[in-house]
Structures are given as C-alpha cells and as structure tokens.
Amino acid sequence: MKVKKFFKNFAMGAGIGVAMIIPGVSGGTIAVLFNVYEKLIGAISDLRKDFKNSFFFLLPIALGALCGIAALYFPLKYAIQYAPVPTILLFAGLMTGSLPKLFKDTRKNGFKPTDFIALILPLALVVGICFIPALGQADLSESMLWWGYVVLVLIGALASCALVVPGVSGSLLLLIFGYYQPILDVISQIFSDFPHSLLVLALFAAGLIAGFFSIAKLMKLLLKKFPRATGWAIMGFVLGSIPALCFTDEFLNAKIDGVQIAVGALLCLAGVILSAAIAAYAESRNAKNLNIN
Fold first, then answer.
1. In this model, does residue 266 exceed pLDDT 90?
2. Environment class of residue 68 by beta-carbon count within 10 Å: exposed (0-12), middle (13-18) or buried (19+)?
3. Residue ranges of the domains in the chain?
4. I need a surface site. Which of 72, 88, 186, 262 has the fewest CB within 10 A?
C-alpha cells in the first residue's frame, strides 16, 4: 500500500513539475487539480514540527517534479530558441484560459474599493518591470558581476512561486526577467563548464528552496488573514503577466513572418482551450470531493 501511495504521489509530482517548467502554467494550480494543494502547503509549513511525516509525503512529489522538469527541458529549450513567437503565444493562451476560473474563485470572497489597490499594484508592477532599460537576457557567464550572483538567489526565490501560489507561474517570471533561457543554457553547459555552472545552479536552487518554504508560510498566513485581498493580488499578477510576455527579449528580438503568426495564433487558441479545460476539470473534481465529504 505504501509503495502504491509513493508512486501515486510521484506521478502527481511529475505533473506538477511539468507545470512548473512551462511559463503560463502554475504548479500550484495542478496541485489543486490533484486535490493535494492544502496537504502540500501544510507539509511544507510543518516540516520542522512534523519532519518525518512531512518529509515522506514531500519526497515522492519532489522526485516526480524533478523528472517532470527533466522530461520537458529540451523541448522547451529548443522551442524558445527556434520558434519563440509561437511558443510565447502558446504561453499567453495558457495564461488567458485560466482567467475565468481564477476570477470566479476570487470573486467568491467579494470585492471592496480597497481591493482595487491589491489588484492594480501587482498588475502595474509586472508590466512596469518590462520597461526597465537594462532588462533583457541575463548574463550568467563567468564574466557576470558579483551582484549578479545575489540577484540569482532572489530570482530563484521568485521562481518558487510556481508551486506555492495557484495561478502564478514562476517560470513565467523567469521569462519576463530574462532568466528563463539563460538558466536552461547553464543546465546544458553543466559538463562543459562544470564549476561555474554548478555554482550558478546551486545559488538558484538555494533561492528556490528558501523561497519555497518562506512563500509557503507567507501564503498560509495571507490566505488565512487576508483571503480577499490576496486573491485579487494574484488576479492582478496574472493579468499583468499576459501583456508582459510580449515585452520579453525572446519575443521582441524574434523574426516574425506570416507562418509564425498563423501557427502562434493556433497555439494561443489551443492554450486557452487546454487551460480552461484543466480549470473546469479541477472545479468539477473539487465539487465532487466536497459532495462525497
């Protein structure tokens, strides 16, 4: 029975890992879909208090997530490199398709005039980031300045949002900040430039782990104390992320032709349909679980 449960959690982790590496898809949303989100946040928050149970619950999920990320690593790397416009439009479609469900869930807690600030600030922040002059492809080579290593840890912490916050894609943040492709490139160079690549990935992982636990605790607190404002803030972030995709370095520097636009439009529509279908299935499954309970 324990072996069966291990592989079940491993499979769920693989699904979450796939979502984590795709910009526009939230690992947290997939965790909600699998009806494991609250258990996941609880296990992360209680790791020190109840280490044994939390660790053995999280271990197969973490291993599965790593396998899911590894499975999509090369396809996404080459998609961004050789077909950036259709790929990014697919990501935009995935984000757009999740909006109706996210809005419906957020509206359940009501809306007050002060919540408009919680909605607008994250939206303005994400879009505003795209107009920072120095923003573009991050330099993760051996010639990067010392502060680049510090920023790398912070970027890792931001990327941890992919799992902890439903509806928020940490990999999308990496794409907006210009770290998505460079991180993939560093992974490719792990054998050819081992010491530097290992240092970069270790610092990124340190930020990822620190952010993972910190944001999990913060989300638990915010959802408990300020559920309405937190919901609208997440909504604002997701809304701002969609136009922000069009200001990424990969999109702006791409050579656009009719074929890419046509393929991109079809992929965008496919992304909307897929994301909306996942959200609808998650909602029906959660409703079914509530009726059973």
1. yes
2. buried
3. 73-281
4. 262
